[in-house]
Amino acid sequence: MKKVNVAIIGTKFMGKAHSNAWSQAPKFFDVGLTPVLKVACGQDMDATSDFAKNWGWEESVGDWKKVVERKDIDIIDVCTPTYLHKEIVLAAAKNGKHIFCEKPLALNFTEAKEMYEAAEKAGVLHYVNHNYRRTPAIAFAKKLIDDGKIGQIFHWRGTYLQDWITDPNFPLTWHLQKQFAGAGPHYDLNSHSVDLARYLVGEVKSVSAMLKTFVTERPLPGKDAGTFKSGTGAAEKGKVTVDDAAFMVAEFENGALGAFESSRFASGRKNFNYFEIYGSKGSLAFDLERMNELQYLNLDDPVDEQGFRTILVTNSAHPYVGAWWPPGHIIGYEHEFTHAVVDFLAALENGTKITPSLYDGMLDMQVLEAAIVSSDTGRRVNVADIK
Ligand code: SOE
User: Which of 14, 22, 220, 343 fits as disulfide partner to 79, beta carbons 3.0 to 4.6 Å?
Assistant: First the structure.
């Protein structure tokens, strides 16, 4: 079996999810290329060494610039904070490495465009990990839509809500600083909703948006986070430079309308990724907290029998799930990442492309940036005007 050597850069939450996926893919799926977990790269050498041992990476290193130049590495998996994505992806492309990069792709459209063009010019396979496309229920929704079961789509309603920073004493981590994250939930969460909307409904023509920061200052992270510095009587604080919530309405190229909500202040919502799609022949609804189910309304049903029905998307006929367990034995959040790795390896083996590619990542960023311009100017913005 041909092997491909993978190097992962970034060893926190996404590093874990990706490591699990690279390990699980050949165990559960018939992959033509076997991924070798070659190198794990992180800033803290002790933590990276522990990470490598735990997940089965052969080596642990601290300098990503050396990793992307190694002749024995085929794939670079980027799991760092957003501000590092561009530099790593450009270096990986320059060295002819295939690219598997976390979302959001970049800090802005200009960066994303440069990254996409570099990867294309290098002729490498490139993918941005909007993992939710490979949730079986969402992949099945895509099939229903493509088969015409929903008919003409009138509107999309997407909401992605979390609540992990409602405490004003939550420290000023990189996620809350524009130079590192680009934006708050508008990038972190709404990027998923925009990607799903583009995947399921179509391209976005124009947007109007409002971004809001509720807590504008927070304690600095580290030893003084949330404590009082001696003698000053006040914790050292820093300015929050990203949104805490972002609401957006959109018109799609195909005439459909869309509503998008994203927030990290929705108390009680831990990872509430939810959408509804309403069409001329039916409707769909998906809730990540019930991720093995798809709500489906079919207007061809006899009128007195019409209503949303719950499809348990766990049959072998459904996308991906047959490789895991028998019908009804549900799967979880981490399985989408494995499905992405499986499809990436297949694309690499067959010399085909995979979506969402960096091209999709670039188009996602274009929509997101148009929304920021709209929020800043108070006017509706055509996505095509973001260049
Ligand atoms: C934010 O907490 C986050 O980890 C996002 O960054 C991920 O993309 C999302 O899948 C889960 O929540």
Answer: 14
- Please say whether the beta carbons of 273 and 253 come within 8 A: no
Q: pTM of the prediction?
A: 0.96
Ligand 1, atom 11: nearest CA belongs to which residue? 271
Residues sharing a CB contact under 8 Å with residue 99, sequence separation 6 or more, in sequence order: 75, 76, 78, 89, 92, 93, 119, 124, 125, 126, 127, 358
Note whether 126 and 170 are same-domain residues. Answer: no
Domain check: are 241 and 112 in the same one? no
Task: Give 10-residue mean pLDDT values along the chain (387 residues).
Answer: 96 98 98 98 97 98 98 98 98 98 98 98 98 98 98 98 97 97 98 98 98 97 56 74 98 98 98 98 98 98 97 97 97 98 98 98 98 98 98
Q: How far does the centroid of ligand 1 lie from the alpha carbon of residue 304, in Å?
A: 41
Ligand 1 center to 247 CA (angstroms): 18
User: Which residue's alpha carbon is nearest to atom 3 within ligand 1?
Assistant: 188
Segments forming the whole domain that contains residue 368: 133-327+364-377
Residues 29 and 145 in one domain: no
| 184 and 96 assigned to the same domain | no
Evaluate: CB of 271 within 6 angstroms of ligand 1.
yes
